[in-house]
């Protein structure tokens, strides 16, 4: 606040209330000094300050109510103008009352007298605020406000939660969609739909072109058929690509026994397992370049099938089994985590017994006839070819191996 600004009535009253206690407890000489200070601060007359210090500074109720300055005609004119401008705030409405009133008169929407027009020119901002407070309760809103959660009615029936890190049963999947739009989000481009099972670390990926409910539904159906164990829970974020009437109906009606849950808005750590895999299993291989052709989508799905074999059957993962909060000598705390022996997601799945014997035999046979070293080499060699297809942007990902960890 600038130093030369005068005190408002409320600020002056608060100041005098604080000074009144000191004034009444002071001797005569000190009171003279306090009066000099208050006279300088408030710019009030000294006799007025003496009277205020001796009296009651609490606000007293108005003995006689003030009459109406503006009649019903003015209030009705302001309401019609506000409606014509789609009910803007009083700060935007007040300076435009006069010219909009004249404009509506020419359009035949409003009739005003010169007296009413003059009152519209001098009406205060606070008066317009008081008038508009009554209208806004009855204004139909264009969209429910309060963020995307209020706008998307489907989300209301889906509980917010966080899958426990020590979930003992396979089938609880964190789900996310990785965008491959490059520097521009215009048009249709490729997305990676990724599902991570919290219990076993089993990972599923599929590339889709666009994110309409048709391609998302087909991707979920295809991944569900390839999974060697049933899906018990789907846990994505709050995106419309997951929560729309079509996909909710798909999970509730066509795929029985699947629970839907979602993470809290703006809490990415509620999907911490899939967010981690987005970095290590998608971005580390594909980067942030743009993929937007049908052939790139098909080639990427062939690459994901190779990664499905490599990461689920050969890549050992460690799981947290204990978390302890330790208090240090300086009263700060740290978390100590203990992990189990590293095992592949397929081995963890077999330990749970959730996989049927026939599927276990088939996957074991696939693992036995697969050369993991050659499979890794095939994955690395397939990535540059993905960006050499017709329609790819020249210069993308020329040396993919340098971007991956050795």
Strand content: 5-15%
Shape: elongated
Low-confidence sequence ranges:
143-147, 398-406
**Helices and strands: which structural class?**
alpha/beta
- The count of DSSP E runs of length 2 or more, i.e. the number of strands, is 7
What is the number of helices? 16
Biggest sheet, open or closed, and with what strands and sense?
5 strands, mixed
What portion of residues is helical? 40-55%
Gyration radius, rounded: 35 Å
Taking all residues together, what is the mean pLDDT? Answer: 85
Strand order of the largest sheet: 3-2-1-4-5
The first-to-last residue Cα distance is: 59 Å
Order of helices and strands: HHHHHHHHHEEEHEHEHHEEHHH
Give the SSE layout.
Elements: H1 9-25, H2 28-42, H3 46-54, H4 72-84, H5 90-93, H6 97-106, H7 114-122, H8 125-136, H9 148-151, E1 172-180, E2 190-197, E3 203-209, H10 213-226, E4 233-235, H11 245-254, E5 259-260, H12 272-286, H13 294-313, E6 320-327, E7 333-339, H14 345-352, H15 357-368, H16 372-386
Parallel strand pairs: 1-4, 4-5
Antiparallel strand pairs: 1-2, 2-3, 6-7
């Amino acid at each position: 606040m600038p130093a030369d600004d005068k005190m408002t009535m409320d600020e002056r009253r608060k100041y005098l209330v604080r000074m009144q206690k000191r004034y009444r407890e002071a001797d005569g000489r000190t009171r003279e000094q306090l009066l000099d200070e208050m006279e300088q601060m408030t710019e009030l007359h000294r006799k007025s300050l003496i009277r205020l210090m001796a009296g009651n500074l609490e606000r007293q109720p108005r003995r006689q109510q003030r009459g109406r300055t503006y009649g019903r005609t003015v209030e009705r004119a302001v309401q019609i103008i506000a409606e014509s401008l789609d009910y803007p705030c009083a700060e935007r409405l007040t300076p435009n009352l006069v010219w909009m009133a004249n404009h509506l008169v020419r359009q035949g929407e409003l009739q005003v007298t010169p007296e009413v027009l003059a009152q519209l020119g001098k009406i205060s901002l606070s008066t317009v605020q008081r008038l508009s407070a009554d209208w806004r309760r009855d204004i139909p809103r264009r969209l429910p406000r309060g963020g995307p959660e209020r706008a998307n009615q489907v989300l209301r029936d889906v509980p917010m939660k966080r899958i426990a890190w020590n979930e003992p049963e396979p089938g609880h999947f964190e789900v996310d969609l990785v965008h491959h739009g490059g520097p521009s989000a215009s048009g249709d481009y490729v997305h990676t739909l990724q599902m991570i099972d919290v219990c076993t670390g089993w990972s599923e990926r599929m590339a889709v072109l666009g994110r309409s409910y048709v391609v998302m539904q087909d991707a979920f159906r295809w991944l569900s058929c390839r999974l060697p164990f049933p899906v018990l829970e789907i846990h994505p974020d709050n995106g419309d690509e997951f929560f729309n009437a079509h996909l909710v109906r798909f999970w509730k009606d066509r795929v029985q026994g699947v629970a839907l849950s979602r993470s809290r808005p703006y809490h990415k750590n509620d999907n911490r397992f899939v967010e981690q895999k987005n970095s290590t299993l998608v971005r580390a291989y594909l980067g942030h370049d743009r993929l937007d052709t049908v052939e790139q989508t098909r080639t990427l799905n062939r690459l994901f099938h190779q990664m499905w074999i490599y990461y689920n059957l050969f890549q050992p993962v460690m799981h947290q089994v204990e978390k302890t909060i330790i208090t240090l000598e300086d009263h700060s705390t740290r978390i100590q985590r203990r992990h189990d022996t590293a095992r592949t997601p397929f081995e963890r799945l077999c330990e749970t017994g959730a996989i049927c014997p026939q599927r276990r035999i088939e996957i074991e046979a696939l693992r036995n006839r697969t050369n993991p070293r050659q499979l890794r080499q095939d994955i690395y060699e397939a990535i540059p070819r993905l960006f050499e297809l017709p329609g790819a942007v020249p210069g993308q990902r020329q040396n993919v191996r340098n971007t991956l960890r050795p």
